[in-house]
């Protein structure tokens, strides 16, 4: 097998367009090793057979067997990259996107036409979308031919590379270097990846936290709608409490400030998943005051909280009083937060390091019952400390987040009772 990649620009000749840079990096990675090249075609493109004596050409932003870069205003159907063999047997057209929901059906049709003369035709589409875009399936339905249409997410490409990196590559130092370099590049371009865990190897910063939280919110949207059909809206943008914290929520069509909502936040020490009772949620506040005014309702609430506590590593309760400047800038006037383990059994476990201080229960009850003519909100928060493990720095933590959102369902419905 011989791989010609002289049609690729020099590895150091970077494109100004970020999407083209992504394509350029991937093609140089796989084109620099026959082993990686074969693995890519078999594992990612799903090519079943690769003749060992065949010669292959890789190119980006060009028509195969030509040297000039394409211009954006020229032929629309030139794919971002090609992999073809010299005998006209295999033709792989590759379309790359670095933004979700950005595929165009006409563009994909043009790519399909471009490789019509190859005996084994593949159209590989790589995007950041969490699920296969509708336009890929639509093209598949309309092209009832021998064209093989393959979609992969950048997250799947990353996982494929990570799986290869996990193998013993002591006899392949070049491949180990290529894979680790591409993984590092994709991690820097984490806007194209799905949720990869909550971690800040270079220290917490707001921009990284926003990217992590956004990817998390996108993957949790379906789960949230399943258990809370009324909570279908997110905020227009992820908000920062300060330079130390970011948050977003799933709220109702009325607006997240007017009813209960599910809030997710990340700060330098922890990640919280919460049920929030905002100041303007009149029905929820009426319900909360009714609960704290009746012993039986209180017992039911704390029984629900006990069940919730058994399903999360930490459970906190918060009361927050604020006022706003120009309706936008929140200023905290008073704040109370306590670990529910401080209330003692049945919340506090024997091995807990939290000291009992039952007074917090009376404090939250009094704060709720006496809330009047102030802007106050209550939050019930499942907390995951970043330094406690829990797999929070791994992609699999999304499963824990989904389970936690489900665990809040009894509390949510209890607070919505009229």
Structure overview:
This protein has helices at residues 18-31, 34-44, 105-114, 134-142, 154-165, 173-188, 206-227, 282-292, 295-309, 359-369, 397-407, 409-416, and strands at residues 2-4, 55-60, 81-85, 90-96, 120-127, 148-153, 233-234, 239-242, 245-251, 261-267, 270-277, 314-325, 329-339, 375-385. The chain is of the alpha+beta class and 418 residues long. Strands 7, 8, 9, 10, 11, 12, 13 and 14 form an eight-stranded antiparallel beta sheet that branches. The chain has a six-stranded mixed beta sheet with strand order 1-2-3-4-5-6, sandwiched between helices.
Secondary structure elements and their pairing?
Layout: E1 2-4, H1 18-31, H2 34-44, E2 55-60, E3 81-85, E4 90-96, H3 105-114, E5 120-127, H4 134-142, E6 148-153, H5 154-165, H6 173-188, H7 206-227, E7 233-234, E8 239-242, E9 245-251, E10 261-267, E11 270-277, H8 282-292, H9 295-309, E12 314-325, E13 329-339, H10 359-369, E14 375-385, H11 397-407, H12 409-416
Parallel strand pairs: 1-2, 4-5, 5-6
Antiparallel strand pairs: 2-3, 3-4, 7-9, 8-9, 9-10, 10-11, 11-14, 12-13, 12-14
